[in-house]
Amino acid sequence: MDDERYQAARRRVIGRLFWRLTFFLDLIFFLLLMYVLWLSVGRTPESEDNLGALFATFIFGSGLLVHGALAFNVFGRLIDRATRRELERDQPEEKPKRKRLQLADDGEVVALVDDESESQESRYAR
């Protein structure tokens, strides 16, 4: 059982590390590509090249943001935090009731009955 749980946890960790590694590789590729793209656009003053480079930056940058959000589990953490708050809000806050216990002559633990609860039980029994 522990070996199965360990292997499942290991697969999850490797999956997260893979997402993060590919994000950083995408980031490096994005920065290099944008450097080359904007360097080449800077040499030609035509507005069509600037618009295409701007569009490419927007599309690739948006994909990179989504990849980063998935790699670092941004949405999952927000959802988990909100779910925990909602569960805490739904739980009624009750004080735990004390049970009064006493040790009997033979060493057995016996619950004591309060006078109030005993009198209520006798009223209902009549």
What features would you describe in this structure?
This protein has helices at 2-43, 47-71, 74-90, 115-125; strands at residues 101-103, 109-111. It has 126 residues and is mainly α. It has one domain (2-90). The chain has a two-stranded antiparallel sheet with strand order 1-2. Helix 1 runs antiparallel to helix 2.
Write a concise synopsis of the structure shown.
This protein has 126 residues and is mainly α.
Q: Which SSEs are present, and which pair or pack?
A:
Layout: H1 2-43, H2 47-71, H3 74-90, E1 101-103, E2 109-111, H4 115-125
Antiparallel strand pairs: 1-2
Helix pairs in contact: 1-2
The ordered string of helix (H) and strand (E) elements is: HHHEEH
What is the C-alpha radius of gyration, as a whole number of Å? 33 Å
What is the general shape? Answer: elongated
The helix fraction, in percent, is over 70%
Number of domains: 1
Distance between the termini: 56 Å
Number of strands: 2
Quaternary arrangement of the chains shown?
single chain
What structural category do the secondary elements indicate?
mainly alpha
Q: How are the strands ordered across the major sheet?
A: 1-2
Tell me, rounded to a whole number, the average pLDDT. 81
pLDDT below 50 for ≥5 consecutive residues: which ranges?
none
Biggest sheet details: 2 strands, antiparallel
Annotation field: number of helices: 4
